[in-house]
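The data are quoted verbatim for completeness:
=====
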Amino acid sequence: QVQLVESGGGLVQPGESLSLSCAVSGNISSVYMVTWYRQAPGKMRELVGFWGDGHIPRYGDSVKGRATISGDKTKNMVYLQMNSLKAEDTAVYYCNLYEFWGQGTQVTVSS
């Protein structure tokens, strides 16, 4: 069993930045890759990007250049930094590992 807990969401204004965290625990391999997704109301779940051992972080087209994913294996934490936020970034953000998902954290970008 794996537990993923996202945090850091909230209400921000367009153009601002936000950092999300994903705490990973449970029965995890020493080598793993965590993926961030997001889902806006009425839309399909969308890839934000991923981070993991032996992989260069990759990002979805909609956030490329504005998102940075990093991780700290000593703490089993994965981070998503989003800059220059837009209204269309409003979504619930999830982290995923194997078949496990966190509960998500809401990000709302609005003036």
User: Anything to note?
Assistant: The mean pLDDT is 94.
